Inverse folding.
């Protein structure tokens, strides 16, 4: 169904999202709410998919657009990967303009180069979503101007995007840059005169002729826009951050019981990142939570504590690099890592209680229990989390390992077989890991019960893993062990 037609203002002030059945901010918000919770649990790739699914129903939503790129940044920083799973790629499949727009956003999160950025801005402009178009164009311009040789065609494409985004002064600047690259373009010179008139009218407040305080309103709007742009800027100078904190403090002094105002001040303090800032932000969140019982405030306070614990663990790990295992530095690193896991478990338990249907949170809680060696608690969470298609395969993999640790070998074998059945076309390393887990469970079963059939199946699995990747884990040593066990069991038979 077409995305062009009658238009109405959205909750973000964009006059571009078409009034069609696909455009449903209410439906989108359900995805966005889930994406926020999933991001905070650390499942950044899944959060990316949820943001994109929500943007399909509300492509003009700026907070969601920013949330998508935050999740993307966190995912690639944590995983070190250069791509995403097939599930995420499938979520943007389609030939409609909104599908192409979502694909453009995903490509930009992967590539972060000038071409991908220009493409994303153009696709936003095609949808005529005003604020996202301007936001994406700003980022594309920064990348294009960083190139050793600036391309005129890219400048003109971005000029058109700024025109759609109603940033006429910026469109004029790009047109002038393009003309300097090619002074012989007479048609461009004429367009520059037209853009100059648009920019003058927009800047001067002529569109408000006849309205009381037209020029004063323009000055106030300019100040407001400055604050918005500074707040949204990905890289902020120290002075800018201090000014944003001061602005948020002033607003908080006027409205100390207003929850959105408290959130903005706390976010600015966390962004500045001084130790006293983090403590103040934590106190603000907890105070507001005590007054309102809004769990997202408690969750934000918990995020600060987890962030601090991760920082302490990373610092301890860095100090312990190269130290002997029994050294004080190594023990301190181990204690810091354990303290982080304990804190994450405590936080995730509260979030699971608050959002019992969020299976992604249950998966994350199960992972922490597994890392702590609490296999029974981990299995309890994994048994719920396995019903979430996004986490089904890694959940079954960890659940099989937990059963193996407990010595419940029949359950481990059954779980690994189920995982292989549902894995389908999962990445090669995932399938290797599952087959290795099944091999280990079968080997333990064969050793315990002197079961030749289990040993022979483990031998076939070890051989297939070695053929595919001979350096996978300790497969060569495990294969030798299994071969000896098979020979011993056969001789006895």
């Amino acid at each position: 169904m077409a995305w062009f037609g009658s238009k109405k203002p959205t909750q973000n002030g964009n006059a571009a999202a078409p009034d069609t059945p696909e455009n449903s901010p209410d439906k989108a918000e359900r995805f966005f709410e889930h994406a926020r919770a999933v991001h905070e649990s650390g499942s950044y790739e899944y959060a990316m998919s949820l943001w994109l699914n929500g943007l399909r129903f509300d492509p003009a939503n700026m907070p969601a657009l920013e949330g998508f790129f935050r999740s993307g940044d966190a995912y690639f920083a944590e995983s070190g990967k250069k791509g995403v799973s097939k599930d995420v790629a499938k979520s943007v499949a389609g030939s409609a303009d909104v599908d192409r727009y979502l694909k453009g956003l995903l490509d930009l999160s992967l590539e972060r180069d000038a071409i991908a950025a220009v493409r994303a801005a153009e696709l936003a402009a095609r949808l005529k979503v005003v604020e996202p178009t301007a936001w994406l164009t700003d980022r594309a311009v920064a990348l294009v101007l960083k190139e050793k040789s600036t391309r005129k065609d890219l400048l003109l494409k971005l000029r058109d995007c700024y025109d759609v985004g109603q940033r006429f002064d910026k469109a004029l600047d790009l047109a002038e840059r393009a003309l300097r690259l090619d002074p012989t373009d007479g048609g461009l010179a004429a367009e520059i005169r037209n853009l100059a008139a648009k920019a003058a009218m927009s800047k001067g407040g002529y569109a408000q002729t006849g309205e009381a305080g037209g020029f004063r309103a323009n000055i106030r709007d300019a100040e407001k826009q400055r604050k918005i742009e500074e707040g949204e800027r990905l890289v902020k100078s120290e002075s800018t951050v201090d000014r944003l904190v001061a602005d948020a403090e002033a607003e908080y002094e006027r409205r100390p019981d207003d929850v959105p105002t408290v959130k903005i001040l706390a976010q600015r303090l966390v962004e500045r990142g001084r130790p006293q800032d983090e403590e103040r932000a934590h106190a603000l969140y907890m105070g507001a939570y005590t007054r309102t019982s809004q769990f997202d405030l408690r969750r934000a306070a918990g995020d600060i504590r987890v962030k601090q614990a991760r920082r302490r663990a990373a610092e301890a790990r860095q100090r312990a690099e190269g130290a002997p295992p029994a050294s004080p530095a190594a023990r301190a690193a181990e204690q810091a890592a354990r303290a982080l896991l304990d804190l994450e478990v405590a936080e995730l338990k509260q979030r699971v209680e608050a959002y019992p249907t969020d299976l992604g949170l249950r998966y994350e809680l199960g992972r922490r229990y597994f890392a702590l060696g609490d296999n029974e608690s981990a299995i309890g969470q994994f048994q719920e989390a396995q019903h979430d298609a996004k986490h089904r395969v890694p959940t079954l993999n960890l659940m099989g390992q937990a059963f193996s640790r407990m010595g419940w070998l029949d359950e481990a074998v059954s779980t690994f077989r189920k995982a292989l059945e549902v894995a389908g076309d999962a990445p090669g390393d995932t399938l290797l890991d599952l087959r290795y887990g099944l091999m280990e469970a079968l080997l333990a079963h064969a050793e315990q019960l002197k079961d030749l059939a289990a040993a022979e199946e483990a031998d076939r699995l070890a051989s297939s893993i070695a053929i595919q990747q001979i350096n996978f884990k300790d497969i060569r040593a495990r294969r030798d062990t299994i071969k000896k066990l098979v020979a011993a069991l056969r001789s006895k038979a």
Remarks:
- The chain is about 75% helix and 0% strand.
- Residues 1-21, 204-226, 228-237 have pLDDT under 50 and may be disordered.
- The radius of gyration is 28 Å.
